[in-house]
Amino acid sequence: MASPTEIRKGRVIDYQGAPHLVLEMLHRTQGRQAGFVQTTMRNLHSGSTTNTKFRSTDNVVFLHTETNKLEFSYVDTEGYHFMDPDTYEDTVLPKELMVDAKNFLIENVAYEILVVDGQAIQLQLPNSIEMKVTDAPEGLKGDSVSNVQKPVTLETGLVVHAPLFIKTGERIRISTENKEYLGRA
Questions:
Q1: What is the pTM of this model?
Q2: Rounded to an integer, what distance in angstroms lies between the CA atom of residue 59 and that of residue 87?
Q3: For residue 3, what are the CA distances in angstroms to 8, 11, 15, 23, 31?
Q4: 91 is in which domain, residue-wise?
Q5: Closest CA to 126 of 111, 109, 116
Q6: How far apart are the C-alpha atoms of 68 and 85, rounded to whole Å?
Q7: Pair 93, 123: CB distance under 8 Å
Q8: Do 101 and 142 reside in the same domain of the chain?
Q9: How do residues 13-55 score in pLDDT, each as one tens digit?
Q10: 139-166 tens-digit pLDDT
C-alpha cells in the first residue's frame, strides 16, 4: 500500500478492482483541512474516464507495468495478434481495445504494448505514423488557389485529406491523434 501523494501521471493503480491509468494529477490543500490528490484516470478495461479525490489517509495500490515493443502480425476472430521479435511469443489484444487503433496497424511494424501485471492491456500508438498511399485521385486543374486538399486512401483503408500533389504510392506521415496529414515521409 502506498500514499496518494506518490500518484504521478502515467502510473497505473488498482481502483475499484480494475487497472486505471493516471492521466492528470493535482495535489491540493484547503486551509486547515488535510490535503488531497485530485486525479483524472482512465479505466484500462472499459476505456471510461473518471475524476477521483484521494485523501491523504487513503491507501493506493500501484500495479507493476512494463512496455513491450511487439510487431503486429494479423487479425482473426480471437483479436489482434502481436509477436515478440526476440522470443516469437504471440500476444493477443481483444478487438474491443483496438477500436481507435485499428486504422493505424500495419503488418510487421513494431508497436508499444502496455503490460500490467503480466497481462497485455493497451496498445500505445506513436504520435505519428508513416503509411503508403494506395489511392489518390488526380487534382483538378485550377484548384490551387489556396490550401485545397483531396481525400486519399491509405494502406489500412483509412481515408484522410492530403494536399493535391500527393500521388498513389507515396509515403506520408499521419497524426494518430486526429487523423490529419502531417507531411511526406
A1: 0.75
A2: 38
A3: 11, 13, 14, 18, 21
A4: 65-124
A5: 111
A6: 11
A7: yes
A8: no
A9: 999 888 898 889 998 887 777 788 899 998 887 778 899 998 8
A10: 666 655 667 888 999 999 999 999 888 8
